[in-house]
């Protein structure tokens, strides 16, 4: 015995049984009854996606609903939203699609007519449908639930949630490593004050003016310059800064050498 609530199915069968031509009509009649039992109301035939609120909503099937028993198109409304039911017969299989016109979300279910409809000549649609409880469960889970149980809304919400990564999924930004400052020495440039040893290397040599290569002290150890008398005393160490050209090297004795013994003895 069926356990589902089949209220209205027998009455609908009595109203439409004379208009049914084959198992495909009986299958669509069963689907229509299931939609009406779940709050849908028919607003005509066709696949027009415009909802006219002036059209009467009915629990009955419209006239000419099974004019083409190979392809069906019925329009329904629920909660001021339009739904279009399509039924297409292909190789003894009835493919049923339910389209929500506004969101264009679609659900579908397929039924083998020979395994779903027992005998078309039975006096009751309840007896005609094989395992009617199982067929009702399939219509609920495959046809209505994806659209009317928040299918489109839940999918859009799920999309928004999945697009926002959870805190556990956010990769922490690693701390910036200290930058190493590298001093680049340009190649091929002539460095001032002599030397491939670096800027100022020539000035570290006090006799750079004699050896060549520039640099060194402005005044030599004898404090004398060629071509003029120097006012400074011998032995003075005065190193004014200035990039003057190198001087001519003088012959020995080197004034920086130690004096001979008795150099400062006035009696020698």
From TrEMBL:
Main location, first listed in the record: cytoplasm
Region (Disordered): 149-172, 238-268
Subcellular location per the Swiss-Prot or TrEMBL entry: Cytoplasm; Endoplasmic reticulum
Record-level GO BP terms: proteasome-mediated ubiquitin-dependent protein catabolic process
Keyword field: Acetylation, Cytoplasm, Endoplasmic reticulum, Methylation, Phosphoprotein, Proteasome
Biased composition (Low complexity): 152-172
PI31 proteasome regulator N-terminal domain mapped to chain residues: 19-153
PANTHER family in the cross-refs: PROTEASOME INHIBITOR, PROTEASOME INHIBITOR PI31 SUBUNIT
Function: Plays an important role in control of proteasome function. Inhibits the hydrolysis of protein and peptide substrates by the 20S proteasome. Also inhibits the activation of the proteasome by the proteasome regulatory proteins PA700 and PA28.
Protein name: Proteasome inhibitor PI31 subunit
The species this protein was found in: Anopheles merus (Mosquito)
């Amino acid at each position: 015995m069926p356990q589902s609530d089949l209220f209205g199915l027998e009455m609908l069968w009595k109203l439409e049984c004379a208009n049914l031509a084959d198992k495909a009509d009986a299958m669509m009649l069963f689907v229509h009854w299931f939609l009406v039992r779940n709050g849908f109301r028919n607003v005509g035939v066709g696949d027009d996606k415009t909802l006219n609120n002036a059209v009467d909503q009915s629990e009955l099937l419209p006239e000419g609903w099974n004019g083409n028993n190979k392809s069906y198109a019925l329009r329904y409304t629920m909660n001021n939203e339009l739904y279009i039911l399509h039924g297409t017969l292909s190789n003894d299989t009835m493919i049923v699609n339910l389209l929500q016109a506004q969101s264009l979300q679609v659900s579908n279910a397929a039924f083998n007519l020979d395994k779903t409809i027992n005998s078309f000549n039975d006096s009751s649609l309840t007896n005609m449908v094989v395992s009617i409880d199982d067929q009702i469960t399939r219509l609920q889970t495959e046809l209505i639930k994806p659209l009317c149980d928040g299918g489109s809304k839940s999918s859009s919400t799920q999309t928004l949630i999945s697009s926002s990564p959870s805190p556990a999924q956010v990769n922490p930004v690693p701390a910036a490593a200290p930058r190493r400052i590298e001093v680049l020495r340009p190649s091929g440039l002539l460095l001032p004050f002599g030397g491939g040893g670096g800027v100022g290397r020539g000035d570290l040599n006090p006799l750079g003016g004699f050896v060549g290569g520039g640099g060194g002290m402005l005044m030599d150890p004898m404090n004398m310059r060629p071509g003029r008398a120097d006012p400074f005393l011998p032995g003075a160490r005065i190193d004014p800064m200035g990039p003057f050209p190198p001087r001519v090297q003088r012959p020995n004795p080197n004034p920086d050498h130690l004096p001979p013994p008795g150099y400062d003895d006035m009696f020698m």
